[in-house]
Specification:
The protein has 260 residues and is of the alpha/beta class. It is 37% helix and 20% strand. It starts with 9 loop residues before the first helix and ends in a 6-residue tail after the last strand. Keywords: Methyltransferase, S-adenosyl-L-methionine, Transferase, tRNA processing.
Length: 260
């Protein structure tokens, strides 16, 4: 099994991430979770790693706040998009681009970080847990870890309400993969166990797109997407809606001592 590289799909993938209402929801939920946690650092300039961050939406947002960011991605095309956007910025952005698989990152080369972001990456990895453990060796004591992953149970529920019963009966496996359908979705309880093993205190747990993906296909011409966004934010931290999120966001804080 190989990890996914989006070089050939860079333009389509980037557009699907933040160029649509579902992307706006994703950005709003993640930032709602991150902003108050970052506030605990006060005015401190943070070192941030955006692991598998593509064209660096959050890298750029955080750099604009004065933080120092390392943006790493396996896709040269995604990083080329990032460089183009960084160069076009109306202010200097302290972002260092690293073209490499995130498994190649090390303390020796990159040092330690106050915040590590890993959004919509683990569901494409052949060995997600081991890869995340490697990243966490670079997280400072009391540092923050923002992990967003594709929710396998929501994947199943979406297939059920869509009437794709054969797909569900086949345990969500098909002969021909859709190119943007993640290959290794995860269960919420599985990732919670990882956090416990890593001594990572779970500060935030949110569903991402808890409503959007279950809307009827045809909406009225005057459908209000801002109201949808408001409802997504309202219900994203309540059960059973968290468990229905197409993605789930965990924000953890490192409680392990350096010797551990």
């Amino acid at each position: 099994m190989q990890d996914k590289n989006f070089d050939k799909l860079a333009q389509k993938f980037a557009k699907n991430i933040y160029g649509t209402p579902k992307g706006e929801i994703r950005a709003a939920v993640l930032w709602r979770d991150l902003a108050p946690a970052l506030a605990q650092f006060g005015d401190k300039k943070l070192r941030i790693l955006d692991a598998g961050g593509g064209f660096g939406y959050f890298s750029q947002k955080l750099a604009r706040l004065g933080h120092e960011v390392v943006l790493c991605d396996i896709s040269a095309e995604m990083l080329a998009q990032a460089k183009e956007q960084i160069d076009a910025s109306d202010m200097p952005l302290a972002i260092r681009l690293v073209h490499a698989p995130i498994q190649a990152l090390s303390i020796t080369e990159h040092g330690m970080f106050d915040l590590i972001l890993c959004h919509a990456v683990v569901e494409w990895l052949a060995d997600a847990k081991t890869t995340m453990e490697g990243l966490l060796t670079m997280l400072k004591p009391n540092g923050l870890f923002s992990l967003m992953f594709y929710n396998k149970e929501a994947m199943r529920f979406h297939a059920l309400v869509s009437g794709n019963f054969d797909y569900v009966a086949a345990d969500l496996k098909v002969k021909k993969k859709v190119r943007l359908t993640p290959t290794h979705p995860l269960y919420i309880h599985e990732v919670k166990l990882w956090f416990a093993q890593w001594q990572m205190a779970l500060l935030r747990e949110s569903g991402v797109r808890v409503i959007h993906d279950y809307l009827k296909k045809q909406q009225a011409a005057d459908f209000d997407y801002q109201k949808l966004l408001s409802m997504e934010l309202e219900y994203s931290q309540r059960e059973p809606y968290i468990s229905l999120g197409r993605y789930v966001h965990f924000l953890g804080q490192n409680t392990a001592t350096p010797s551990e």
